[in-house]
Amino acid sequence: MFRETITHATGDSEGTARESHVLMLLRRALSKGYAMEATRTGGARVRWTRVDLTTHAIVARAISVEPELSLGALDLATRTLLARIDVGDARYEVHPDRYVIAYDDTEITPAETARLRARRLVAVDHAGRVRLTLAARLGLLAHDHRQAGGGNDGFAICSCGFTANGPTGEAVDEVLRNHRQVVTASFVDSISAAYAAALSATR
Ligand SMILES: [Zn+2]
Q1: Is the confidence at residue 203, as pLDDT, over 70?
Q2: How far apart are CA 172 and CA 164, in angstroms?
Q3: From the CA of 143, how far away is ligand 1's center (Å)?
C-alpha cells in the first residue's frame, strides 16, 4: 500500500492507495502530460497546473505517493537480486525446510527471500510467480537517475551518464529534473499489460 497526499486549493488530504491505483494515477498523468518523478523511496510525485474557474488564476496541483513501508537502502546486492527477478520467471517455492525465491536452477537464500518479501520489494501471486512491486521499480528507477557529480559549476551529471548544463545551479537542477521526469514518463509508458494485470490481481 501507498500513502497518497493530494495537494489542492484548501490544503493537503491524505489517503491510502493500492499499487493498481498508483499505476492508474501515473498512466493518467502520462496521458495528460503532467510532470512526474520517481523517488528513491519507491514513490512518485505528479505535478500540474490548472486554471481556477472562479478566479482565473493558475493554480498548482500535486499528488505524491510513497510506500507505507519504507523500501530501505537499495544496495548493490539487493539491486542485483531484483534485476534478476525482474527478468520474469522467478517463482516462490515452499519446501518442508525452507521458503525460497527460485529461478532457473538458482535459489535465493531463505533469509534473502524473507528480507525481500518483508521489505515489500517483491510480491507473490496465487500461482507462486514472483514480481517486483511497483515501489521497487520506482525506487530502482530513481536510483539509476540520481545526481552523481557537478552541481555549482554550470553542469551536473546523472548517474546514468546524462550531463546537464546551464548558466546557474538552478538552471542545471531544472535540466536534471526534466531529465528525471522524462525517464519516469518513459518508465510508465513501458509498463506492460501483463505487469498491470498482475498489479490488479494483487489484493
Ligand atoms: Zn539519468
Answers
A1: no
A2: 6
A3: 9
